[in-house]
Design brief:
It contains 15 helices and no strands. With 303 residues, the chain is mostly helical. It has one domain: Farnesyl Diphosphate Synthase, CATH 1.10.600. It is globular.
């Protein structure tokens, strides 16, 4: 089973579930019914398994090119495995991978419909954007924008679970926190770390297009925007989270995003890009722990 879970990058996917979980709790200001929570977690797990596996299937040709003449690095601490890109490595057949991906996608569709039918559209949009993101690897570095939209689709779906008519203003605020986190903490650092492989296949990425100096600046700007936006997230919640919550949130942003981002910008070493990616992967989980602590601590609802 390790090869199948490697296809879905399950370790990373489980960490990613923290983002929609956090957004749902923040938006609701409390914990949903256990039935809703259980179905939501299962659906999120199925969705991430399907989307990550889809990434490998659609990007198979490029992955095969990357393996030609050299091995692809094993990834990062949160996603390190000898079976990275298992289909491209020949560790998993294309047929088995397609069945695995389809099964999880069907389960995600069923779970989405049971939670709220409109979430089916969010899942389908995320899958379409993921396909486009992979197809644009050799065409334009602007595909990074699509990657950001894919990563924000899960949190949007989570908000729709707890609120069928969410405030557009608060949704924009949520996206202002999530989108630059994905761009500066995940997408560009990942491409930075994979620069040698990407050059081998003539990929178009931000580090290749603009160089490491400019990429470092873009990363810092994106991370600073995400951390700044986190200070306003308590406005979304019906709970009075207070100054302490904001202070801890900013501290998390500094430790997990800004500090490793500054190190990467100053030293410009590929290993530091992987370190930033790892630290940033735990950022939503840290916020999930933070909101849980405040909710379980009995912080009163706002009037």
């Amino acid at each position: 089973m390790s090869r199948f879970f490697a296809l879905s990058r399950t370790t990373h996917g489980v960490l990613d579930i923290a983002a929609p979980a956090y957004c749902a709790l923040l938006w609701l200001g409390g914990f949903p019914r256990w039935q809703t929570t259980a179905l939501s977690l299962f659906t999120a797990f199925a969705g991430y398994c399907a989307i990550y596996a889809l990434n490998d299937l659609v990007g198979l040709r490029s992955d095969l090119e990357k393996f030609t003449g050299a091995r692809v690095n094993r990834g990062y601490a949160v996603d390190s495995t000898v079976h990275r890109h298992p289909v491209a490595q020949g560790a998993l057949s294309m047929k088995s991978a397609m069945v695995w991906t389809a099964a999880w996608f069907v389960l995600a569709l069923v779970g989405s419909y049971l939670l709220r039918p409109v979430i089916v559209l969010v899942l389908l949009a995320a899958a379409a954007l993921e396909v486009a993101y992979c197809r644009l690897l050799k065409i334009t570095h602007l595909r990074t924008v699509l990657g950001g939209l894919v990563k924000t689709s899960g949190p949007i779906a989570a908000v729709l679970v707890v609120d069928p008519n969410p405030s557009p203003f608060f949704l924009v605020l949520l996206l202002a926190w999530l989108f630059p986190w994905e761009i500066g903490g995940q997408n560009i650092p990942s491409d930075w770390n994979d620069t040698l492989e990407d050059r081998r296949v003539r990929a178009r990425t931000i580090p290749i297009r603009f160089g490491f100096e400019a990429s470092g600046r873009i990363i810092l700007i994106a991370l600073a925007l995400s951390v700044a936006a986190s200070a306003f997230l308590p406005l979304i919640s019906p709970r009075r989270l207070g100054a302490l919550y904001v202070l801890v949130s900013l501290l998390l942003g500094y430790v997990l995003l800004l500090r490793p981002g500054l190190q990467l910008y100053r030293l410009k070493e590929g290993g530091l890009a992987a370190r930033l990616f790892d630290r940033a992967s735990y950022y939503p989980l840290a916020h999930l722990a933070l909101i849980c602590a405040f909710l379980l601590g009995g912080v009163p609802r706002a009037m």
